[in-house]
Design a protein that fits this description.
CATH topology of the largest domain: Purple Acid Phosphatase, chain A, domain 2
CATH architecture of the largest domain: 4-Layer Sandwich
Distance between the termini: 39 Å
CATH superfamily of the largest domain: Metallo-dependent phosphatases
CATH class of the largest domain: Alpha Beta
Shape: globular
Number of helices: 14
Strand content: 15-25%
Number of domains: 2
Low-confidence stretches: 1-21, 24-38
Length: 376
Amino acid sequence: MKKAVFIILIGVILYTYSNFNNCVFAQQTEEIPDSIAGLLDDGPYVYWQQPTSAMVFYNCAGEIIIKEFENTETVRFDGFCSDSNITYMLPVQAPSIEPCIYKGVSEIFAISDIHGEYDIFKDILLNSGVIDENLHWNWGNGHLVVVGDIFDRGAKVTECLWLIYSLEQEARQKGGRVHFLLGNHELMVLRGDLRYVHKKYIKGIARKRRISYEDLYGPDMVLGRWLRTKPTVIKLNDILFVHAGISPDIISRNLSMEYINEQVRNNIDARSTKVAFDEELKFLYKSNGPFWYRGYLEDEDYIRLTQIQVEEIQDYFDVSALVIGHTGVDQVKSMYDRRVIAIDIPYESLFCFQALLYKNDTFYRVYGSGEVEKLH
């Protein structure tokens, strides 16, 4: 009996040590008490009242701060509260829809399922050289891919969104690109499913101003109209990026990347009645669509794909690899003879992030420290 207990104890120690090596751990913080959750800083949110007039509002230590801009071509303002050193530059023009296919990309840095963990997200970008100490783009003509799920769970969703928004502008000026793919949690929030929203947001500006949380990201908000231009699927070189996965049903329905992206963009605000009676749209938004599918890893609700099915998906999209998030793994890893790479490291259980680096036709696992390790 003692021998069995000893063996179990050694196993637990080895497992813990293995996970410690797989991740760079963040300091855990206590859960925010209900009594102060509504007093924490939140924002900025920018509301376009007219085509050239905007209102900026922010929750700072329990006080709603408002700034108004009228008849302007660019909304420029310094951040509030804890981000007072940041300057926001927001053009009046609506953001454009970017291509979903890029060729000749020499370096790619991909990360997924941030869920409002801004500090750890920022640190891995900084330690990997994607950004500098002032949070500016530092990666030249490289491409950063955020494979969905910035929203929900964590308490710094707006910080994550504004960082990505700013880096997207800076990267383009330096020959690089930032690609933010929609995940299931973006879809949920934009469509009013608030089950996983951090209580800070429910008790903050939304309650104080009697605004539905999803309307803070509505089509007349800067971040809202920006999010509505984002793709669901993209292809860099011969690598496909999608939040959850591509199911065989997408092939049987003969759906292209362009069509998927267009359908989601055009129907992200569709009423539930339309989704209920539009079979194709319902498919895209449900369990076998690109936002939810989990057939590449073990899951009790899905039959795991075979090697042949994965190869058929690759042939259909003319790619050599698929990069997916959504389904948690204990470290960034390749599967199906390096045809599929899973990059969702669930922070809530492992308290760390990892990322994927593509460089010189080789994939690497990136740790929170910036250390890289070749994928096998």
